[in-house]
Design goal:
With about 200 residues, the protein is of the alpha+beta class. The protein folds into two domains: about 80 residues, no CATH class; about 100 residues, 2-Layer Sandwich (Alpha-Beta Plaits), CATH 3.30.70. The protein contains five helices and five strands, in the order ααααβββαββ. Strands 1, 2, 3, 4 and 5 form a five-stranded antiparallel β-sheet that branches. The longest helix is centred in the first third of the chain and has 53 residues.
Amino acid sequence: MAMQDTLKQIQSIDFNELDINNIGSWPGVVKAIFMAILFALVLGVGYYWHVTDKQKNLEIEQAKEVDLREEYVDKAALAANLDALRIQKREMEDAFGALLRQLPSDTEVPGLLEDITRTAIDNELTIESIDLEPEVRTEFYIELPIAIVVEGDYHKLGSFVSGVANLSRIVTLHDFQINPIRDNLGLRMEITAKTYRYLEEAG
């Protein structure tokens, strides 16, 4: 019944007679409708200016959250493997130390020359010369070339090369030259053996 009465009141109102400058004189029903429309309008504008900005900020923060989650997953994986990485680092340091121990120091170079000489003698080669050449400095190590000239048959030269390559110190062999000896059935081999010394200041 109240709803019907309200509808009748609205139908009986002549909206052309309403004075926009004197809202207080409007019928109660019209004022209620006007206030509802005004409230909805204010609410809509407030939502647009306030909530929309908040929504944009929320989307930005959500995107950041995704990035942070991915970063967390990556760091969590690293943290989970930290012990394994530490073990691997220690193993690499041990391997590096073992390699360094195979590099001769200044005081061990004469011993290396003796080892090369002994290897030549053990393989029954004639030693023409074994000379230490000038050092070659690189960024991380010093290269120590040794010029070797020996004579003997093919198989003994091969055994000599194998013996030098298998010395306890790191030795690499370069610049092979093998030529027959005149008036002799043997061969003359010129070869450069290189060993290396670690630069302490590079570490």
